[in-house]
Amino acid sequence: MKHYFMTILLMTTMLSGCFGDEGVFEEERGIPGGLALACLQDDKFQKMKIHFLYEDGYDPIAMDLVKTRLQEVCDKPKGVSILADEVDFAIDTIWSSDDVRDARWKHGDDAMDSQTLHWYFLFPAGTYTDDSVLGVAVDASTIAIFKDSVEAAENIIQRPSSEEIERAVSVHEAGHLLGLVNLVYESPIDHEDPDHPGHSNNDNSVMYWAIETNDVGNLITGNLPNTFDADDKSDLAGMADGTIECSNQIWP
Fold first, then answer.
1. Quick check: 16 pLDDT over 50?
2. Is the omega angle on the peptide bond into residue 124 within 30 degrees of 0, that is, cis?
3. Which one, of 124, 122, 221, lies nearest residue 173 by Cα?
4. Which 3 state secondary structure label does DSSP give 128?
5. Which domain covers residue 118, as residue numbers?
6. DSSP label of 120
């Protein structure tokens, strides 16, 4: 079903927030998509752990959904598990990309540990520097979801609800850690929105460019997608089997 928005979204919103483009990434931490093959393949990492770090009162609601979506596309024969920990981030106002990175590496461990791949999802109090941004991917293993902004994005009729928005944004950011769309590869399918690089032009994909801004609350019909569409999955399958070349990979 097509989704229609009441307002035109700003073209620069996705670029300024979604990928956390402030500062310079440290080489060992990589860029969003830098551990895509580590997730999609089982050559090195047989297991995966998804760490949800959240402030008191900011419990994530999409943990099981994120796990399911990653299990659908990632090859982890020894399983994908969830770990949730309440954390005092000591920041409750405005977060920069550097703040997210610093908090993740302060409270978390290495992304690559023996046969286990670790990804971190932070749920802090406060908002991003651009408060229209609901989620941001800042390196190869780290994203943040800003629940204060998610709740503020809910419209008066609660369609979509803040819960629906949070689920969609959480999977969307996980998609960026997988390299979607064209972050670390070039798709043979023309499904990247030319005006919003790194995002799908299909509003039935969770990677649709409008998912993660507060204008998502202007949705007036239908449901928010929280799944990867056929083109997204085709890209991921091609990356996994080597028919699509990937760049900027921390491993291998």
1. no
2. no
3. 122
4. strand
5. 30-241
6. E
Domain count, the chain: 1
- For the stretch 66-92, pLDDT in tens is 999 999 999 999 999 999 999 999 988
What per-residue confidence (pLDDT) applies to 20? Answer: 62
* Token reading at 123: 């749920």
Determine, yes or no, domain membership for 95.
yes
Long-range contacts, 190-198 (Cβ 8 Å, 24+): 191/229, 191/231, 191/232, 195/11, 196/11, 196/14, 196/15, 197/14, 197/15, 198/14, 198/18, 198/19
Tell me if 221 is assigned to some domain: yes
Q: How far apart are CA 251 and CA 85, in angstroms?
A: 27
pLDDT of residue 121 exceeding 50, the answer is: yes
Q: Rounded CA gap, 237 and 55, in Å?
A: 35
CATH code of the domain covering residue 226: 3.40.390.10
Q: Confidence class of residue 11 from pLDDT cuts 50, 70 and 90? A: very low
Strand partners, 94: 127
Which residues lie across from 49 on neighbouring strands?
81, 118
pTM of the entire predicted model? 0.88
pLDDT digits (tens, 9 = 90+) for 213-235: 655 655 545 578 999 999 999 99
Tokens of 80: 């994908």
Type of residue found at 222 = G
CA 28 to chain centre: 19
Does residue 182 lie in a domain region? yes
Q: What percent of the chain has pLDDT over 90?
A: 75
